[in-house]
Amino acid sequence: MNNMVTIKIDGEEVRANEGDNLLQVARDNGFDIPGLCYYNKVSPTGACRLCLVKIKGIEGLKTSCTLQVKDGMEITAFDDELEDVRKTIIQLLVSEHKQGCMTCETNASCELEDLAYRYGVEIDNIPFPINEKYKAIEDSAPMLIYDQNKCIVCGRCIKACYEIQGKGVIDFAERGIDIYVATDLGGLWKDSSCDGCGECIQACPVGALMEKPSKGKARKWEIKKEETICPYCGVGCRIEVEKKDNEIIRINGADGPSNDSRLCIKGRFGYEYQMSNERLVKPLIKENGTFRGASWDEALDLIAEKFSGIKNKYSSNAIAGLSSARCTNEENYIFQKFIRATIGTNNVDHCARLCHASTVAGLARAFGSGAMTNSIKEFEYADCILVTGSNTTETHPVIGTYINNAVLKHGAKLIVVDPRRIDLVKHADVWLRQNNGTDVAWMNGIMNVIINEGLHDKEFIDMRTEGFEAFKKVVAQYTPEKVEEITGIPKDKLIEAARIYGKAKNASIIFSMGITQHTTGTDNVLSTANLAMLTGNVGKESSGVNPLRGQNNVQGACDLGALPNVYPGYQKVTDPNIKAKFEKKWNTKLDDKIGLSVVEIMNEAYNRNIKGLYIMGENPMVSDPNLNHVEEALNKIDFLVVQDIFMTETAQLADVVLPAYSSFEKTGTFTNTERRVQLLTPILEAPGDAREDWWIVQEISKRMGYEMNFKNQEEILNEVSEVTPIYGGMHFSRLGVEGLQWPCKDEKDPGTKYLHKDKFSKGLGLFSPVDYIPPAELPDDKYPYLLSTGRILFHYHTGTMSRKVKVLNDFEPGPYAEISTEIANTLGISDDEDIRISSRRGTIITKARVTDKVAPESVFIPFHFAEAAANRLTNDALDPVAKIPEFKVAACKIEKL
Amino acid sequence: MKNYRNRVLINIEKDTILSGIKEFEEILKKKLKENRLDEEIQVLETSTLGIRTSGISMVICPENICYENLKISDIDKIIEEHLLKGNILDELTVEPVKKRIIEYGLNPMDEKLQNKIVLSHNGVINPEKIDEYIAVGGYEAIGRIFKEKITPEQVVEIVKDSNLRGRGGAGFPTGVKWGFTLNTPAERKFIICNADEGEPGTFKDRLIMEGNPHRIIEGMIIAGYAVGASKGYIYIRGEYEISIKRFQIAIKQAYDYKLLGENIFESGFTFDIEIKKGAGAYVCGEETSLIESLEGKRGNPRIKPPFPGISGLWKYPTVVNNVETLANIAPIINNGADWFKGFGTERCPGTKVFTILGNVKYTGVVELPMGVTLREIIYGFGGGIEEGEEFKAVHLGGTAGAVYDESILDVSLDFDTLKEYDGMLGSGAVLVISNKVNMRDYLENVLLFFKHESCGQCSPCRIGTVKLHEMIRNIEKTDDKEKIMKSMIHLSDIMFKTSLCPLGQSLIFPVKSIFKYFGNEIKA
Description:
The complex is a heterodimer.
Chain A: E1 4-9, E2 12-17, H1 22-28, E3 52-55, E4 61-63, E5 74-76, H2 80-95, H3 111-118, E6 144-146, H4 156-164, E7 170-173, E8 180-183, H5 199-203, E9 209-211, E10 224-229, E11 238-244, E12 247-253, H6 265-269, E13 284-287, E14 290-293, H7 296-313, E15 319-322, H8 329-343, E16 348-349, H9 352-355, H10 357-366, E17 384-388, H11 392-395, H12 397-410, E18 413-417, E19 430-432, H13 439-452, H14 458-464, E20 465-466, H15 468-476, H16 480-487, H17 491-503, E21 507-511, H18 513-516, H19 521-534, E22 544-547, H20 554-559, E23 566-567, E24 571-572, H21 576-586, H22 598-606, E25 612-616, H23 620-623, H24 627-636, E26 639-644, E27 656-659, E28 669-671, E29 676-679, H25 693-703, H26 713-723, H27 732-735, E30 740-741, E31 765-766, E32 785-790, H28 806-811, E33 816-819, H29 821-827, E34 834-839, E35 842-850, E36 858-862, E37 890-896
Parallel strand pairs in A: 1-5, 15-16, 15-25, 17-18, 17-21, 18-19, 20-31, 21-22, 25-26, 26-27, 32-36, 33-35
Antiparallel strand pairs in A: 1-2, 3-4, 3-5, 6-9, 7-8, 10-11, 11-12, 13-14, 13-27, 23-24, 28-29, 29-30, 32-37, 33-36, 34-35, 34-37
Chain B: E1 6-11, H1 14-18, H2 21-34, E2 41-46, E3 58-61, E4 65-67, H3 75-85, H4 130-135, H5 140-147, H6 152-162, H7 174-182, E5 190-195, H8 204-211, H9 213-227, E6 231-236, H10 241-256, E7 261-264, E8 269-277, H11 287-294, E9 318-322, H12 323-327, H13 329-335, H14 337-341, E10 351-358, E11 364-369, H15 374-381, E12 391-396, E13 403-404, H16 415-420, E14 429-434, H17 439-453, H18 459-473, H19 481-498, H20 502-505, H21 508-523
Parallel strand pairs in B: 1-2, 5-6, 5-9, 6-8, 10-14
Antiparallel strand pairs in B: 1-3, 3-4, 7-8, 10-11, 12-13, 12-14
């Protein structure tokens, strides 16, 4: 509805869209009607009764927040009666409100306080009895404090929890004056299902809900606010940082394009690492097994000398670099340029190898472009969402909220295919629990049903794709019966899911590591592409194939060529024209051979073929598969440089450790999972003698005789735009709050919301016939259980940041393994008991968490915890195309201690 | 169907169970059998007799004689004298004047008031036997609708024409309400029977339901047909165990007879009914809170509009009707709108089931035509004020109604007239207050009730109820009582203007009227 109409407010004509919220329209036009329960991110409540107005022709007073604009409405917003009513209600609220403003965190930003001031409501002039009996404060939870005595029962927190986050953890308990906000069915907040996102705190207009870590840290007027991008996952949420001096006081969700002010617990509370006194503050050089401080000149000279020495003595290919999904695009660009131009090898990779290498390979083959086809907010409006191999609620929490919204607000159908009973299962119309590693089979099965029932999009297949016939032949073999045998998915459920997906107008596939981290990862990804093309669900809004990228800038690190086979913008190193272009731009000779990938670098280090390794912002000593092997490999390297913000497990093995900036301290750009390039704001001073990563790389390069001469990150992005067609129009000055989504070919290009509209990047979409191949290692007599690994909500990747945050540690203090009730019963293991888990590659001791979340003969271990690192057990068998290891399937045994 | 010469109603309640009524019932049944009377006389359990009695009590129908304080040794005498010979045992009756009990019985004073609509078969038929309801013309109305192919529009027209007004309290014309829903196209529509009778001093719906549940079911089916709904819910007060049991039996029987379910009377019309028990919140008697509760949510009222008729249960058009309203439907269809308009007043036709309680001699339930006066009710059916006391006040229409002095006694009781007196007929509760009651205490009690029952959603009601209660509680301690009273009226007036639902809006009625009629007493 976009019908402009005219209404009258207090005699003044106002133009507005028919159907718009009347209170919002009034406020937007300068009529400051009070209202405490109104919060424009949730549905109107009409409970505080302050926004009452008079409408001509309607009897009585009406809450403007619950009314919609209609043509010709005549409204009285202010008169003596209305103001008397409002003042009385404010008096009532203040009479029940705890008189604790002097020490309240919200003092000076409290909506009730503002109204009391405006209406002259003081304790002495309230004609009603004042309540002075206060109830106990609920402060059991790690992240927040709820002071019922300050609560004005507006319900904004409750709606924020349900309508925004889709969680519905909190609601009112009791009634009348005894009403308060309670979690679940009552009980302590800390024992509830609350996951600590803090959306409720952000919604609270008073000081009833407060961030616990911020208590007592700063008065509102001492605080400066600045916006930047969250340093954690690939959603790329915009955050508002409140700081005092050089310390973060709190973080709020800001109105960013991918998050609409939403955040998760890590985004809101996970900043404590930033102020940690464990930050690296000066370069360290290892001598006789111990580190000593050094000057930048000494450290940089040493590195240049050592790398030059290796290059001269062996060859350029005896050196490799691991770039970083945590660093900016500019830093990734300069890092790969250093490895390629200064060192002279394509041995550059980064941890995307471990997460989405198969996505990039598979989708590039099928569509011509290996990224999310659509944008995050489009999920909310999909008719059908198929989530597989993504525990979205925990790993991309804010995207999880949009899925919740799609289901709860708009009635979307949700299909979850996952061996674990992940959180989304509770909203799912169908949950298919496949045997780990049988993804090709179930997807072929679904497509078999779709084709047999004629639900495929013949026109789309004819016009937009190729290879259908060969593909169809393979799929024809995957009858629901056969698929049930392979995957364990009952055929009726498979058929039901196929029908839901096949009949949807806009169906979106969301996947992540459960699809990619297999020896058949590329095949799995190809199957998702097949499924989308079969039903014509690509190239339009709210549909597509959407791999969720894990880290804040893993998309960018790939885009900027921190990969052994491509230059920035996925331009192949083997293409002579491309090579020539970069040789010209970089003014040096380049190697035309594909370099080594992450696991291959470790293998070659183990074989003593890699002599020098430069790691920027990565921690393979926790993140890589088969850690015992990685550890041996790193120990064999002649010269290891690690550049980080903390002394990581990997840094401890280094010869030189260099202190870098965190994302709160620098500018530059991150590219989030929906291909959106967003600009960082430097907010805090870096500690000690730390330096920006790009500066460090450039200094080493200079000392090795290759000058880059960038003055700042902005200049680097300008060079990127010259050599990278998909980033052709990316410049700091254009990014603003909204950022730009690639492809963005030139200055005038507004960027691309969703890919492959009308035409695939590669022309015609390619159907690939894909057969099911079992995982590399499956349970047997010796190792009878199936092991899978992954992430959890409360920690991040190798824990370098998140494990330095008290709130997050309070939620999840240490390592554990989810084991099924069946296993627990067989082995006589009880919850929280220490157990030993071993695979063919290693052993760890961890705590058992007995749960039905995992399938009967399965174990799941979060990989964040170095002291019981899941990756000591995982298999480093690789996908032959993408070289991604099989983190998701291994065989293990469990012993009671 | 089996015909019985007499029915004996006995009240199984917590108190009477403690008095040994179960054993009494067993022996009574055994002795009836020994006397071969079990084919002629039926014993029925009910939860209340609608009259204040003490100890083990019974009503013998059709002559409507109530006996109380019975002992097992009285059984032989009752069988021999009353049930065999027809002699009333004066010494066992509640008291001589009350031989004829009020709620099921005849008015001893005025023959014109005998006609009943809602309660016409209560106590006459066995509520657990569908055949008995059918035998007295039950399910004829819905049968006729299908047989004579009366369209939904015509049904709504008949109800509109009858000018039946909602008996839950607000008095909104039922036919008009149905018309809204009929004319709102939707995939699904619902009928809800509001049986969450929670108004203090009101228990008329319970008697209607316990005595004749099929009448309400038939009313719901007709309503469903009229508006195009195929599903009905009975939202019933959880404590009404016998009503719930009777409904469960009745619904099952109606399904067995294919009067519920698919293709009723081979008409293609489908109607299902489900029972949902309330959990004791007063505010859930308000239709939108009831709907929220029925949806499984917290029972908070919604903002109106939209009204349930347009957007109700799960946002579908929904008719919410009170038990008593629905009990009027079948008779109206059977006898026509004109017949109905022959009862009561012109603007408020029909009868009203009143609950009389408080300081009267006889408390209970009585069905009378609209327009009857309080004097007739209190002094006719209530037997006047309790011994040694005098009439002081009457609280009319439930807690949310106004409190009057004797000046109200001759005013016509109907929805419209009472509005002129700043009050309402409400649920039809007539709470009589004698001179022994202190009106400040009484108001404190009323306000305590509201404080307890406020759902807490909107600020004026949540906090206002507390403040009003505290102010009246402490008024004795203040010097300037007048000022407090003024503030209370101002506050309750603000609550009237601003509260989200009728609960908070109605405190003004008791507060203002008590101050008006009894202000001097409070000030003193």
